[in-house]
Write a structure and sequence with these properties.
- The protein is α/β, with parallel strands linked by helices.
- It folds into 3 domains: about 5-75, Orthogonal Bundle (434 Repressor (Amino-terminal Domain)), CATH 1.10.260; about 85-185 and about 325-350, Response regulator (Rossmann fold), CATH 3.40.50; about 190-320, Response regulator (Rossmann fold, 3-Layer(aba) Sandwich), CATH 3.40.50.
- The chain has helices at about 5-25, 30-35, 40-45, 55-65, 95-105, 110, 130-140, 155-165, 190-205, 220-235, 255-265, 280-290, 305-315, 325-340; strands at about 85-90, 115-125, 145, 170, 185, 210-215, 240-250, 270-275, 295-300, 320, 355.
Amino acid sequence: MDSDQGNQLAEAVREGDEAHRRRQLATVVDVARLAGVSTATVDRVLNQRPGVRPVTAERVLKAALDLGYVQDGALPAGALKPLRLAFLLPAGNNRFLNRLGRLVIESQERLASFNMRARVDYIDSFNPELLAQHLRQVGREVEGVAFMALEHPMVREAVDWLAGRGVPAVTLISDIANTRRVAYVGLDNRAAGRTAGQLVARFIGKRPAKVAMIAGSLSYRAHEEREMGFLHLFHELFPMIEVVGLREGHDEEARNYRQTKMLLAQHPDLAGIYNIGGGPEGIARALKEAGRQDDVVFVGHGLTQETRALLIDGVMDAVINQDPQGSLLECVSIFANIRAGRPALEGTARPHIEIVLRENLP
């Protein structure tokens, strides 16, 4: 045996002795304390008895491993399996949401390093009944759900049903009130609406003018809060600028095109448009056809290839953005915290509002 082999053998012996020493020192009480559960729960998990939620069982097994109370070979079959996550996103042509969905799929290797795997389901989430049904369905198949919420009693009931099954739900981009969801990942949407108002007003200048809003759907709390922030900003600081109305476009390019055409026909002196949701290409097309792309201020949300092109072209004046990769990582951190028994938001930071102009395009 050469010296390298001897050193490796000695190191293996030392590691074995250390593991044995830790095993002798650790107790069920230590495992329970580290996992934040009772000793009875530890006993149920290690002896494979039912009645323990999957996230809790995962936490107990990890604590037992970390303390050396059990070794990998002694774990129950299938223990410490990857945490299964589902991201529920609205189907359609919202480029930002589609980009987020692609990012989740492309990040499987990175998720695996957290012992997680994720799937993306696209659904017609303008339909609250369908969203609620899908939440209940995936709640039987995964250990965590992140979704863009609709404000509706059926959706609230579904979120609370998930909580009752021990499946944590994280709202993404748009929150929902009075539920047992564990966290919200997204912008302060009221502040985002005020920011949009400030941008539109500053671009227009101190003069009487008319501006309008186009939302995806006010069933999204995010869109409703952005509208409120936008309206209050003008009421407080720019009373000479009139907000002439709000239209819904369901993030569809064709519908936003028609809504913009009608707005321009009803208000030939329109000076600004705030696009609260998606489908900016439809608004841009209507402005260009009317020859108004240079004198109507156009502010929207979500930096994508399309909004980037509209900024470069000069049709859009500003984009309010949040980083989709940062949002995904925050969701991962939240689910990791819950699995480890830590507060859901420990070590996370709320996404900040990013203002993108043609001159500072990343």
